[in-house]
Design a protein that fits this description.
12 helices; 8-stranded parallel barrel; two-stranded antiparallel ribbon; 15% strand; binds flavin mononucleotide; TIM Barrel; 374 residues; globular; alpha/beta
Length: 374
């Protein structure tokens, strides 16, 4: 498996693109260039990242917007059907789907995942999330479990799913949340029961679940200081190693790259401060604050800027050289991969490929795309 799925590639710092199946992507702003989200733009961006040798494409699992003038993430493509389409139109990149465990039965999800794994010939990764946006669950009328119980539920959900990918004969399942007779699924994924799973839980229990059960573990760096960030990563890796797994630690980063530092900061401040959607971000953070223990209230306020700039991601802001220096430091701290988002995905991804990627290669973070096309 290690040699097949692109997320396991040897590049020291792997790259992906996230959230482009949603209107406004990751930027909570009314700036006119924000992502309108059409299928043709989704395909163009996915193929650009694929050709450039990026490792991953992540659609977000989102069901409704956050209000405010931007109504951030109001229009979203469903992530399994999105991945089936994007998977058929790309060649080497890993394609993910984000699934809310409480909203889809694992028998259904196991088969959807296996189907996309065949479409992509072993390039699929499942992003399993437990949900934190209560308003979207209210549309489904499903039970909204207490925070930590959501992760117990997800562990059992994943157990059912992985057994369906593995078992060669029908089996009974008698769990706390799932009971079923003669469970069965064929065909198995191309990657078998080792089909990689991602999780981005950031509370204590979320991190533990991710480290103990998943192959791609996200961390939301608090950005107080480098030692603190490094310890967050080290803790995640310790938890994985204790569970006998190898952690691959990824982060989400928002990028604003310009020819001078001043221009980059001015462009960032324009869409975050001048055009930032205070109402949508306040709605988002009041729910996130209540539903996740990730950020303490004082940190949350400081994080508002990062949420408007890129959904709480890590800032990569400045000249191509400065941004690559930042990524070298992140890599040295233990970050294995970054999922990127931009205000103007198509224009700024193209610029990244032309101006930043060559410097990443020169810095030893990545090898040229042509060397890992299969
Ligand atoms: C890169 C990334 C992608 C995520 N994708 C989704 C998503 O698509 N849908 C969702 O409901 N939550 C998503 N989340 C939220 C996490 O799954 C998680 O619920 C959140 O970080 C709060 O942590 P906790 O669940 O441990 O409290 C994402 C988080 C990150 C960092």
């Amino acid at each position: 498996m290690e040699s097949r799925n692109p997320i396991f590639r040897a590049n020291r710092l792997k790259l992906g693109v996230m959230a482009f199946n949603c209107s406004h992507g990751s930027t909570v702003t009314t700036a006119p260039e924000a992502w309108p989200m059409t299928w043709s733009d989704n395909v163009a961006l996915a193929q650009m990242a694929d050709r450039a040798g990026f490792e991953a494409l992540l659609p977000v699992g989102r069901w409704k917007g956050y209000g405010g003038p931007s109504n951030f993430n109001n229009r979203t493509f469903e992530s399994f059907t999105w991945a089936a389409g994007i998977g058929a139109l790309t060649k080497q990149i890993a394609v993910l789907s984000t699934i809310h465990a409480p909203l889809v039965h694992p028998v259904m999800a196991a088969k959807q995942a296996a189907t996309i794994d065949h479409i992509t010939q072993g390039r699929f990764v499942l992003n399993l999330v437990c949900g934190w946006f209560r308003n979207e669950f209210e549309m489904f009328g499903v039970e909204w479990r207490e925070h930590d119980v959501r992760y117990e539920y997800a562990a059992e959900w994943l157990d059912v799913c992985r057994r369906l990918w593995f078992e060669k004969t029908p089996f009974e399942f008698q769990g706390i949340y799932f009971q079923g007779k003669e469970l069965w699924s064929e065909p198995k994924p191309i990657q078998g029961a080792d089909l990689p799973v991602m999780n981005a839980g950031s509370s204590d229990i979320g991190q533990r679940f991710s480290a103990q059960n998943c192959d791609m573990n996200f961390v939301m760096l608090r950005q107080r200081d480098e030692a603190n960030d490094q310890e967050q990563i080290a803790k995640l890796k310790r938890l994985s190693n204790a569970a006998g797994r190898e952690s691959r630690c990824w982060i989400h980063g928002y990028a604003v790259v310009r020819s001078t530092q001043e221009e980059a900061e001015a462009a960032l401040n324009r869409y975050v401060i001048e055009y930032g959607d205070e109402e949508a971000v306040s709605n988002m953070l009041s729910i996130f604050g209540m539903e996740s223990g990730t950020l303490a209230p004082d940190v949350m306020d400081a994080f508002k800027f990062h949420f408007k700039a890129g959904h709480g991601g890590y800032p990569l802001v400045g000249t191509p050289k400065k941004v690559v220096d930042d990524m070298v430091r992140l890599s040295e701290m233990g970050v294995d991969g970054i999922l990127l988002s931009w205000l103007d995905y198509l224009g700024e991804c193209k610029q990244w490929v032309e101006e930043v990627l060559p410097l990443m290669e020169a810095a030893g973070l990545r090898s040229p795309a042509s060397s890992h096309h299969s």
